[in-house]
Amino acid sequence: MSKSKKNNLLNFGRDFNPDQKVILRDYLAIERTRLANERTLLSYIRSSLYLLLGAIALYQLKEFANFEYLALVALVFCVIFFIIGVYRFTLLKRSLKKLYYNAEQNKKH
After folding, report:
1. Which of 70, 71, 79, 103 could form a disulfide with 59 if both were Cys (CB 3.0 to 4.6 A apart)?
2. Is the pLDDT of residue 89 over 80?
3. From the CB of residue 44, how many other CB atoms can be counted at a distance below 10 Å?
4. CA dihedral in degrees (97, 100, 101, 107; nearest 10)?
5. pLDDT tens, 27-76?
């Protein structure tokens, strides 16, 4: 897999390149995006906690030995959800910081 394809896969297709001056409407849009990013992170965390609870419940069912494997799968997905959520949050947060920085530089000129 080429490096550019791998970078696009890891970036989830989100690159911000401001090419104009940022006005108040754009600042408000950036703020809404930042808040939506935080809500999305909380959703990922909530989903991973639900999977963790499900894994614990399935693991405690001693009568069904096959459910231990299902509990392990739920636990793995719990960790994956959490890692993806934190990764996407930091990725978008960095992009928004870069956008804020570029907007401030454009505003001063």
Report:
1. 71
2. yes
3. 19
4. 180
5. 788 889 889 999 999 999 999 999 999 999 999 988 887 888 999 999 99
User: How is residue 78 written in tokens?
Assistant: 């719990």
Helix (H, G, I), strand (E, B) or coil at 14: coil
Residue with the two structure tokens 């530089």:
105
**52 Cβ contact list (under 8 Å, min separation 6):** 74, 75, 78
Considering only CA atoms, which of 95, 77, 86, 106 is closest in space to residue 30?
Answer: 95
Instruction: Answer whether 0.70 is exceeded by the pTM.
Output: no
- Residue 27: predicted pLDDT: 75
Q: Which of 58, 77, 78, 79 shows the shortest CA–CA distance to 69?
A: 58
Q: Which pLDDT band, with edges at 50, 70 and 90, does 21 fall under? A: low
The first and second tokens of residue 1, run together, are 């897999």
Question: d(Cα 68, Cα 28) in Å, to the nearest integer?
Answer: 48
